[in-house]
Amino acid sequence: MRVAIIGQGYVGLTIAAFAAAHHDVVGFDMNAAVVERLNKGISHIEGVDSVLLKKWVDAGKFRATTNAADIADAEVVVIAVPTPLDKNRKPDLTFIESACKTIGENLKRAALIINESTSFPGTVRGVIKPTIEKYSKVKLDHEYAVSPERVDPGRIDWNQKNTPRLYAGLTPAATAGVREFYSTFCDNLVAVSSPEVAEAAKLFENTFRQVNIALVNEFAQITNALGISVHETLDAANTKPYGFMRFNPSAGVGGHCIPVDPSYLAHVAAGVGVPATFIERANEVNLEMPKYVVARVAKENGGSLKGKRVQVIGVAYKPNVADTRETPAEHVIEELERVGAVISWHDPVVGSWYGKSSSLLGDVEGTAAEIAIVVTLHGVINAKAVVASAPYVFDTTGKLSGVPGL
Ligand SMILES: NC(=O)c1ccc[n+]([C@@H]2O[C@H](COP(=O)([O-])OP(=O)(O)OC[C@H]3O[C@@H](n4cnc5c(N)ncnc54)[C@H](O)[C@@H]3O)[C@@H](O)[C@H]2O)c1
Fold this sequence. Notes:
By secondary structure, the chain is α/β, with parallel strands linked by helices. The chain is built from twelve helices and 16 strands. Strand 13 and strand 14 form a beta hairpin. Nicotinamide-adenine-dinucleotide (NAD) binds near residues 28, 81 and 116. Nicotinamide-adenine-dinucleotide binds near residues 99 and 102.
């Protein structure tokens, strides 16, 4: 099949790398620098191997482009663009709308259009289809479907091949088409009765994580006040073979999905008059964690961090990825700034962030750190060196022994 994938980020490039083994793939992205590197076979995404990408480029199975006309004869078009929140924490569908404009204006044949971007129930039916039709100069009988992406960047045990994939079309023909496409590189396809069910399931999966992370973050505050270890207590609870699923406390939630997707669900819930109270409260608890962490560190260091040299270790939102989107480390740093600490950050995986480079471990503006706060512990970071990097080390990850933490 001739496949066009709109958006060549974490999701779009991952799909492209799997699909190119079976199809001719064009990856459309507005970012010229990304496109240029992809056409040299250089991947910018963890989990997408540059050697494999180069193989597909050299074989003519994959090419990236900024020229929207290159999608004209695609038989399958996959939408994989961002779906963030706006400044009022409401769904921002401007990237989806601009992808639909590109598709509507440039596709010259009837195609199967599949949305992989995460959005609220009704997006394929009520936003994507009408927007593409609005921008199509000629009437083409496109089919529309959704197959929400479940990729977990950096993870290798669960990938496109073995992770069950939900799908549903607006018509039986769309459902059959989406199955035919994904069955070429995914072993486990799960049909649901409507796009709205697939869209809602994706949002609920991430809401389940968001709410449980908030619950364990609140629990960590309770156990600390009780003078018992949260991790020992979780270990104990986790011996129950059924009815319990362990989540670990942290400095908050990050990434493009967990802090964002539940608010898409809350948005549709409000639209149908049902208050999404768990989502709202979970957001509050998770967003307050950086303040809680800094307050704990201050309390254990004489009550004030004013003028103290503090290094934040690990600014990616999770281990072993360079992704800093929505990272709680940013809020930890903001709070440290607010209380007057002198701050640096160390993250060898991220390397550069907001135009600044990672400091050496244990270094704050050329002087030894007095305090380290570990937000994310990458595999390449030496745990013993972290523990030795400052006289006081606070661990939010639960992975370091012999130091205070959550
Ligand atoms: N990253 C994840 O782990 C993950 C997992 C599951 C679902 N999702 C969802 O998948 C979607 C994409 O996320 P992502 O992480 O791949 O985003 P990303 O930011 O990594 O990549 C998006 C890409 O789309 C490009 N883009 C934006 N607007 C465009 C347009 N109109 N035309 C062409 N290209 C455009 C950007 O330049 C960027 O390269 C989001 O809805 C996200 O919620 C992400």
